[in-house]
């Protein structure tokens, strides 16, 4: 992708917006005219980004949202609609990574990753799509990962990271609603506070670290 289309006055929700790609997506959407709801489990972690947008003349709302909790999702979506308007763009970006190798992973580790990265994508996607469908339009962008294309050695035995991202990719491909578009970009690995333990060779947070043996490349810009 070589361009980002103008999104003047469109309402966008970005989950996992406290840092890394989520913060980047929120700023990018706002820079192109969208009114952005920045969501994370802790509202304090997105407040600074929302302030940065409003200080530049944009419109942003910091929202507490836990993708593993249906009540939290529904409350956040309702608040966004009340304060900004109907959501027209959803960037499903929230995710976690289990740092334990496959042989050491517990059932709790596995369940946490799947509930966030797979069920959480479905949970937020469904809540927003149910509101998009009657309006006859909407865009859902589910951020996946190049990890699903790698051999396990490329992600240091982190099977859960491959499994949940592959399943999420299949989920958006199967969305049956003609009125709501779904995309599934796969950015390269990005070192952040959560993912840096998986990429010991990448010392600086915020730096893109391509995984070895990648068979595709992907630009993490959004077209909606």
Automatic annotation (TrEMBL):
Keyword Ubl conjugation: no
Entries under SUPFAM superfamilies matching the protein: NAD(P)-binding Rossmann-fold domains (SSF51735)
Pfam families assigned to the protein according to its UniProt record, in alphabetical order: adh_short
Domain Ketoreductase, first and last residues per copy: 10-175
UniProt-listed SMART domains: PKS_KR
Keywords, alphabetical: Oxidoreductase, Plasmid
MF terms in GO: oxidoreductase activity
InterPro entries xrefs: KR_dom, NAD(P)-bd_dom_sf, SDR_fam
Transferase listed as a keyword: no
Disordered, as annotated region: 184-204
PANTHER family with a match to the protein in the record: 5-KETO-D-GLUCONATE 5-REDUCTASE (PTHR43669), ALCOHOL DEHYDROGENASE, PUTATIVE (AFU_ORTHOLOGUE AFUA_3G03445)-RELATED (PTHR43669:SF3)
Similarity field: Belongs to the short-chain dehydrogenases/reductases (SDR) family.
Protein name as it appears in the record: Ketoreductase domain-containing protein
């Amino acid at each position: 992708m070589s361009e980002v289309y103008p999104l003047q006055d469109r309402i966008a929700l970005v989950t996992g917006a406290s840092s890394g790609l989520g913060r980047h997506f929120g700023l990018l959407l706002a820079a192109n005219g969208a009114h952005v709801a920045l969501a994370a489990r802790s509202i304090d972690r997105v407040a600074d980004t929302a302030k940065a947008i409003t200080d530049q003349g944009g419109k942003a709302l910091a929202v507490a949202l836990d993708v593993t909790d249906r009540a939290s999702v529904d409350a956040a979506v309702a608040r966004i609609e009340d304060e900004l308007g109907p959501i027209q763009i959803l960037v499903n970006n929230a995710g976690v990574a289990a740092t334990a190798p496959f042989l050491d992973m517990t059932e709790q580790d596995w369940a946490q990753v799947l509930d966030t990265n797979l069920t959480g994508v479905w949970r937020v996607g469904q809540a927003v799509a149910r509101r998009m469908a009657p309006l006859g339009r909407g865009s859902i962008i589910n951020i996946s990962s190049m990890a699903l294309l790698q051999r396990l050695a490329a992600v240091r035995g982190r099977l859960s990271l491959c499994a949940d991202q592959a399943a999420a990719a299949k989920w958006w491909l199967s969305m049956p609603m003609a009125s709501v578009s779904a995309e599934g970009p796969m950015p390269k690995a990005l070192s952040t506070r959560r993912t840096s333990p998986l990429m010991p060779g990448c010392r600086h947070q915020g730096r893109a670290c391509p995984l070895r043996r990648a068979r595709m490349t992907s630009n993490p810009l959004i077209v909606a």
